Every structure is written in C-alpha cells, then in structure tokens.
C-alpha cells in the first residue's frame, strides 16, 4: 500500500480539522421531520455538550451520527472522512462509541463477563483499568448486569464501550437519575479521558454537570441549534442557559 492510499487515522487529523463535523443535518422518523439543518463540530480533545429541553433533538443527533437512524440527510465527517453512508458497525469501527440513554449492557451476564465479552481491542480499556476507574464494579464482578443499581449500570456501560479504544465518546445523559456521588465519579472519569486525549460529545440536561465538563455547548430548540456557548462565556450566559432548559 502506498502512503497516499493510507486513510488518515481519526485523531491524527491535520491541525485545524475538526474530529467530527456535522453539516446541515436533517432527520426524520417516518413523516415526522425532527432535525432541521443541524451544524456542529467537535475538535480533537474537546468535550462538547448538547443541551436543550426534552424532545429538542439531542438524542436524534447522536443516533444520526452513529448511523443508527438512517433516515437523514446532510454531511457527517469523522477525521475528515465521510461517515454518513456507513452502517453503524462501520461507524463504530472508525472510532466512535455511543452509550445510549438506556445504558446498553448485557443484563443476564455478570459484570466481569460484560467486561470480557468480546475481548478488549488493543489500546482499549482492560478489565483491570475498568476496575481501577470504578472499584465498585470489581466488588460487583459476579453480579448480573440487570441487578446493578442505575449508577453501576451507567459506569459499566461507559467502561464497556471504552474497551474498543474509541477516539470519540458519545454519551447520552450519563448523569440522569443518579445520586450526586455517582455523578461526580462519572464526571471525574470524563475529565480523565479528556486529559488522555479522548473527545466527548455529551447530551445533558444537568446544566451544572455539563458546564463543569464541557469546553463548548450547543443549545437545541425544536430540532435546531439556536446558540453556542463557550466555557469562558458560561458565567455571563448562565441566565440564558437556564432559560433554554426551563419548561
Ligand atoms: N422513535 C421515534 N419515533 C418518532 N418520533 C420520535 C422518536 N424518537 C424521538 N422522536 C421525536 O423526535 C423529537 C426529538 O426527540 P429526541 O429524543 O431526539 O429529543 P431529545 O432532545 O434527545 O430529548 P429527550 O431527552 O427527551 O430524549 C421529539 O419530538 C420526539 O418526540
């Protein structure tokens, strides 16, 4: 293979190129048109949040990026390469990992089996690393996934996808319904992952959690991005952000 034919590895994109770029994304459930020209990007090493009220289109955006929702138009590039036409398993193979709101874990298998099946890819998180990050998972190693608390299931869902060694982690409301101490533990891991160079696209309704972690925020209203707020502007824009989220 010649050097020219080698695909650029996502994460080693030329300086200034976003890791993920979404342009003019429109998405549909049957006749229902729910995303109306969404534009957003995530730079290498950034944590970016999507915030907005229930039904604003945040989850649909993640599903569209992952190729789980196929009924959509627009451009989606990862590492500068078009991924909009790829089936979801090929999107995942490029280095995107999605933790859905419903926390996809294998409920009948033990925590340990959840962490070992299939085996971690090279460069991905090992079972030992998962146990170091969340020691409670070691203590619960032989419990079936379905018997874990909501917080333990969220931790397990996150470390499961990290076993593939992704470049971009898509998290859908990781703090939802969890006790403050668990939310803090998950926040610490997200910050640690960012320090290691992982990029994160985070859907959140918990503004405190989102503003503590994210470098930038996209505000969704009725299937559109209506505002973008940088970390340094959050204090001055706090009232606007609260208004966007209030029902
Ligand atoms: N499977 C579906 N079939 C039809 N409509 C759907 C489906 N899933 C979501 N919708 C609709 O699409 C719109 C966007 O929903 P989406 O779940 O993306 O919003 P969200 O911002 O993630 O909010 P939430 O936090 O409630 O999930 C809403 O009007 C919702 O009712």
From TrEMBL:
<keyword id="KW-0029">Amino-acid transport</keyword>
<protein>
    <submittedName>
        <fullName>ABC transporter ATP-binding protein</fullName>
    </submittedName>
</protein>
<feature type="domain" description="ABC transporter">
    <location>
        <begin position="20"/>
        <end position="247"/>
    </location>
</feature>
<comment type="similarity">
    <text>Belongs to the ABC transporter superfamily.</text>
</comment>
<keyword id="KW-0547">Nucleotide-binding</keyword>
<keyword id="KW-0067">ATP-binding</keyword>
<dbReference type="InterPro" id="IPR027417">
    <property type="entry name" value="P-loop_NTPase"/>
</dbReference>
<dbReference type="Pfam" id="PF00005">
    <property type="entry name" value="ABC_tran"/>
</dbReference>
<dbReference type="InterPro" id="IPR003439">
    <property type="entry name" value="ABC_transporter-like_ATP-bd"/>
</dbReference>
<keyword id="KW-0813">Transport</keyword>
<dbReference type="GO" id="GO:0015658">
    <property type="term" value="F:branched-chain amino acid transmembrane transporter activity"/>
</dbReference>
<dbReference type="InterPro" id="IPR052156">
    <property type="entry name" value="BCAA_Transport_ATP-bd_LivF"/>
</dbReference>
<dbReference type="GO" id="GO:0015807">
    <property type="term" value="P:L-amino acid transport"/>
</dbReference>
<dbReference type="InterPro" id="IPR017871">
    <property type="entry name" value="ABC_transporter-like_CS"/>
</dbReference>
<dbReference type="GO" id="GO:0016887">
    <property type="term" value="F:ATP hydrolysis activity"/>
</dbReference>
<dbReference type="InterPro" id="IPR003593">
    <property type="entry name" value="AAA+_ATPase"/>
</dbReference>
<dbReference type="GO" id="GO:0005524">
    <property type="term" value="F:ATP binding"/>
</dbReference>
């Amino acid at each position: 293979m010649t050097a020219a034919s080698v695909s650029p590895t996502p994460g080693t994109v030329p300086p200034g190129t976003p890791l993920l770029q979404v342009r003019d994304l429109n998405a549909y459930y049957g006749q229902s048109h729910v995303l109306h020209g969404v534009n957003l990007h995530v730079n290498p090493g950034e944590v970016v949040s999507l915030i907005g009220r229930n039904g604003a289109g945040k989850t649909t955006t993640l599903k569209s990026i992952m190729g789980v929702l196929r009924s959509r138009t627009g451009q989606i590039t990862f590492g500068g390469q078009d991924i909009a036409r790829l089936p979801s398993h090929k999107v995942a193979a490029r280095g995107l990992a999605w933790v859905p709101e419903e926390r996809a874990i294998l409920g009948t298998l033990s925590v340990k089996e959840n962490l070992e099946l299939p085996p971690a890819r090279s460069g991905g998180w090992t079972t030992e690393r998962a146990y170091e990050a969340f020691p409670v998972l070691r203590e619960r190693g032989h419990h079936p996934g379905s018997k874990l608390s909501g917080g333990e299931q969220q931790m397990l869902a996150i470390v499961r996808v990290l076993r593939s060694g992704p470049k971009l982690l898509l998290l859908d409301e990781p703090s939802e319904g969890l006790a403050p101490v668990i939310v803090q533990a998950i926040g610490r891991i997200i910050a640690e992952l960012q320090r290691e160079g992982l990029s994160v696209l985070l859907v959140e309704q918990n503004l405190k959690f989102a503003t503590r972690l994210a470098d930038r925020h996209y505000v969704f209203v009725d299937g559109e991005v209506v505002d973008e707020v940088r970390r340094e502007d959050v204090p001055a824009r706090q009232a606007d952000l609260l208004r966007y989220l209030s029902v």
